[in-house]
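Most newcomers find our protein records easier to grasp once they have seen one. A learned vocabulary of local backbone shapes supplies the integers on the structure line. Here is such a record, shown just as it appears in the course material:
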Amino acid sequence: MSNHLKINKISKTLSYILRHGAIKYNIDIDKYGYVKIDDILNLSQFKELELILDDIFEIVYNDSRGRYTIKESLDTFYIKANHGHSILMPNYGIKDISEPDKYKIVTYNTTYNEWLFIKQNRGLKKGNGNYIELHISGNCDNNYRQSRYNNPVTIYINLEKAMENGIKFKISSNNKILTHGLNGFLSIDFFVKVYNINNDSFFVF
């Protein structure tokens, strides 16, 4: 197995365990979503891949979507998924947004092909996770830049207008804007504009 395939397989399994499967795998998970990295390393499927701590750090460092947080306490490393949990954890860093003025415009980055699908369906649909995940407009950290170039189409969404129409939004510990939309759907009616970074142009929708 190539290193790329190994890291990809590890990342998918890690994401599943932290978001959905910790209890199934008999791994202790605290109320904030953290698990011991040593417990991850001791799982049989990861031992077969000869997973080490550096592999976990590499996955977290290179993750363009900012899905994980690592912390150290008493010489022990812990990791959590920042959002997307199906495990009930009331304190894992997601807060309701009550003042839309702070985040009037947020964005969703995607590929051209996915944009065509979104346009055809007249809005964004919730995927396998619990939420539709959005960025704060103007966020220019490295993860955002990498995500933008991998997903060159940017959909600008009017959060304030959506909230006026009864849609609720939350903000995660890593500054992602999260929403269920209405029944898992965020209508194109709340799109402000759609921009293609590859040719510096806007799409008509």
Remarks:
- Residues 111 and 151 are 5 Å apart (CA to CA).
- Helices lie at 3-21, 37-41, 44-48, 53-62, 112-121, 142-150, 159-164.
- Residues 140-147 have pLDDT under 50 and may be disordered.
- The chain is about 30% helix and 25% strand.
